[in-house]
Amino acid sequence: MADNTNSNIHDQFHKEKHKEEMKHQVITFAMMIAFTIIAFGLVAGDFSKLFVVPIILVLAAVQVLFQLYYFMHLNQKGHEMPALMIYSGVFAAVLTILALTTITWI
Amino acid sequence: MSTHEDVLSSENLPHEPERATLEGKNKFMGFWFFLGGETVLFASLFGTYLALKNSFGEAEGTPSQDLFGLPLVFIMTMILLTSSLTSVYAIYHMKNHAFKKMMVWFGITVLLGAAFLGLEVYEFNHYVHDYGHTFTAHAFGSAFYALVGFHGAHVAFGLGWFIVLMIRNARRGLNLYNAPKFYLASLYWHFIDVVWVFIFTVVYLMGKVG
User: Fold this and answer.
1) Does the beta-carbon distance from B84 to A71 stay under 8 Å?
2) pLDDT of residue A6
3) What superfamily would CATH give domain B15-39+62-209?
4) What ipTM does this complex have?
5) Residue B131 class from Cβ within 10 Å (0-12 exposed, 13-18 middle, 19+ buried)?
6) pTM confidence score
7) Interface test mutation site (partner A, options B12, B15, B40, B189, max chain A beta carbons within 10 A)
8) 3-state secondary structure of B54
């Protein structure tokens, strides 16, 4: 009996925590939608290319970080190895894109 | 004394059922390792596209500014972003051990993913028939379909994965055996969305700007 009550309190604690987490994720989603609208708006509006391209690339990078840290839970504990793996991937990805756009195909 | 079956049943699942077993932990690590590899794979397609996006003959090719239409891409982006949120909801319910609610949200995710895929098929069909923008027409076409098509294939595979998981576990309920499976499928789905964020920015928006 004592055990049960204990586990219920425990459950309640986790449920509250999950709710809190979910709230952050919904806020993240709203920001991702906002960023997307800003990016499309900048392109639809008549701005200079040199102004628009860096901004939409930064917006994309921030959106991806939101996705990784909130939606894919990289912000939770026990995610050190996943972070190492994804950042190693990003490191190799940057080298790949640099090499392909500056040396290989041009 | 709890038997093996009791440990696996829905009523007494531990916190974070996706990583509660050794198998779950291994799958979790292995899947992130795979996602790191996928990042590099997509990077090579992005690099190829960036290098070849202007490689088409005067007569045969349509520049990306004239080819792409923003409204359709915007709708596709919204659909895929929303499907990412619905799979977050599914995992939220999984963590609260609410199996039925999880299935409903995964179901909505599948519907949104299918809508995205349908629009992509429509888009490609439009390019091929109205602009002669095909895979073999020029290097721009090859690089475009290799990149965006490969992403589309990921979406199709993700849909198949969700559907098979849902059918196979429909009557089983949530347990320590299938919690990691659902969790990984949702990670995969978020990763597809991550790639799409770069596709709509680098391919469509930057293509529109010139």
Assistant:
1) yes
2) 57
3) Cytochrome c oxidase, subunit III, four-helix bundle (1.20.120.80)
4) 0.88
5) middle
6) 0.91
7) B40
8) coil
